[in-house]
Amino acid sequence: MQGCGFHIARSNKLPLALLALICVSLFLWPWEKAPLMSSLLPSFEQFSILTPVTDVPTRTSSSADKKSSRDSIGSSSSKEMEHVPIFLANDSLASDSALKEANVEECNFAKGRWVADSTRPLYSGSACKQWLSPMWACRLMKRPDFSFEGFRWQPQGCKVPEFSRSSFLSRMHNKTIALIGDSLGRQQFQSLMCMVTGGELSPEVENIGIDYGLVKAPGALRPDGWVYRFPSTNTTILFYWSASLCELEPLNTSGPSTHYALHLDRPVTFLKQHLPRFDVLVLNTGHHWNRDKFRGNQWELYAGGKPVVDGEELADLRNAKNFTLHSIARWVDLQIKRRPQLKAFLRTISPRHFVNGDWNTGGSCNNTVPLAGGSEVSQDGSSDPIPEAAVKGTRVKLLDITALSQLRDEGHVSKYTVKAILGVHDCLHWCLPGIPDAWNEILCAQL
Ligand SMILES: *[C@@H]1O[C@H](CO)[C@@H](O)[C@H](O)[C@H]1NC(C)=O
Ligand SMILES: *[C@@H]1O[C@H](CO)[C@@H](O)[C@H](O)[C@H]1NC(C)=O
Ligand SMILES: *[C@@H]1O[C@H](CO)[C@@H](O)[C@H](O)[C@H]1NC(C)=O
Ligand SMILES: *[C@@H]1O[C@H](CO)[C@@H](O)[C@H](O)[C@H]1NC(C)=O
Ligand SMILES: *[C@@H]1O[C@H](CO)[C@@H](O)[C@H](O)[C@H]1NC(C)=O
Ligand SMILES: *[C@@H]1O[C@H](CO)[C@@H](O)[C@H](O)[C@H]1NC(C)=O
């Protein structure tokens, strides 16, 4: 994947890497057995979500992910909606006229530049405790520099109205905004909650997770998602955890450690079940499409209801991911055809900035100088061509945040992780407030 600043660890770093790995494993192993120790959860989750690229199998990533995939199965116990086939060759692509219409007000929000802005950030990272996970609230960590908070993304040649809580809520009157994806989607969700509340304590906002079957199962680390309703305008903002966006089906319902069929051509059950309730949908996937995640999650590739066998094109995870993104874009397109008021976005990948290694091999992202590598995106196309191609010819819009986020290597959690394990940096997730706020501004400008 381009733009991911990844370099193979030099061999002299390996002993440190292994040590770090062992430490992480030792720290995390007992947590799995004592899931109620909630104070430890943030780091547990954080490490589980960082994507190992090396071939070293890690207990941490596997155990946590297994848990999360099992949880997501458990919570979708309500009866599944009738399976909607994705590839209806006739029906799935938008007609030419619909396409023109969709492109009319198009501005390329991904092209532009970062500008210093004293009105940023839009909320306080110390105050927005109600919605920010401690593992992403850099103001509550030992990080001393916050210059990364003082910038706004200015798309070239488009008018982006200043984000306003009240105008956002009034435009979203009676509407439901759903974000579905991995931890980077969850970051965008938390950012949006802070933006809409201004980071102020908001006791009036109701937790209505139960309406969507999203409650923490006994012994689970967390619910599979969160749903909040703003009663003043009856606006709902929701996040559902689905790292692949695919339906997961346990292969052995009587076994406690079952493998899962990951159906590349079927959207995740939660989305199929609840889509009729959504007015805005933002999907993302990307960082989980690697062998380690698949092994750890016990995911097995399925297409057309049958296992993908070695040697088939789809056995290559790059092709599998591409196939899924195309499938889901076409499926959502079909839903928009039936219900044109639905606005749907496929978000491009959030770039990683590990230098001199990966998350578990001593990789770091130490730069603290904003925009050291430039402030402008001048290219017309996306730096993440797969989702860009997937939405082409559909009514799904691209929320293209890759290149603009690529310029912000100083905005990651970096070495100030909650548990601050020596040598383990987070150059994948962002500090909040921070870069995902700009993703939401671009999103809101299009609603
Ligand atoms: C297209 O739709 C028509 C009528 O709905 C159907 O008879 C035909 O088989 C479809 N073609 C394909 C390729 O699905
Ligand atoms: C809230 O909005 C939903 C539609 O999104 C509507 O069905 C419901 O009646 C509304 N509730 C109130 C109290 O206005
Ligand atoms: C919101 O929904 C309620 C209940 O359906 C309705 O009475 C009200 O007019 C709606 N408001 C807007 C702004 O759509
Ligand atoms: C399913 O799991 C059960 C319990 O672990 C095991 O006894 C059984 O052999 C498994 N079935 C298959 C088909 O793997
Ligand atoms: C991705 O999948 C689509 C549809 O299945 C296909 O047309 C396209 O060639 C694929 N792209 C890549 C880069 O594999
Ligand atoms: C980042 O800082 C760590 C120590 O905190 C150091 O080991 C590492 O070499 C630094 N990386 C870069 C790219 O400067």
UniProtKB/TrEMBL annotation:
Please list every transmembrane segment annotated in the UniProt record, as residue ranges.
Answer: 12-31
Q: Which UniProt keywords apply?
A: Golgi apparatus, Membrane, Signal-anchor, Transmembrane, Transmembrane helix
Keyword Lipid biosynthesis belongs to the record: no
Which domain of life does this protein belong to?
A: Eukaryota
Which stretches make up the Trichome birefringence-like N-terminal domain?
105-159
Q: What PANTHER family has UniProt attached to this entry?
A: PROTEIN TRICHOME BIREFRINGENCE-LIKE 16, PROTEIN TRICHOME BIREFRINGENCE-LIKE 9-RELATED
Q: Name one GO cellular component term.
A: Golgi membrane
Q: What is this protein called?
A: Trichome birefringence-like N-terminal domain-containing protein
Cellular localisation = Golgi apparatus membrane
Query: Where are the annotated segments for Disordered?
Result: 56-78
Molecular function terms in GO for this entry? xylan O-acetyltransferase activity
Instruction: Report the residue ranges that make up the Trichome birefringence-like C-terminal domain in this protein.
Output: 160-445
Q: Which InterPro entries match?
A: TBL (IPR029962), TBL_C (IPR026057), TBL_N (IPR025846)
| Family note | Belongs to the PC-esterase family. TBL subfamily.
Protein topology in the membrane? Single-pass type II membrane protein
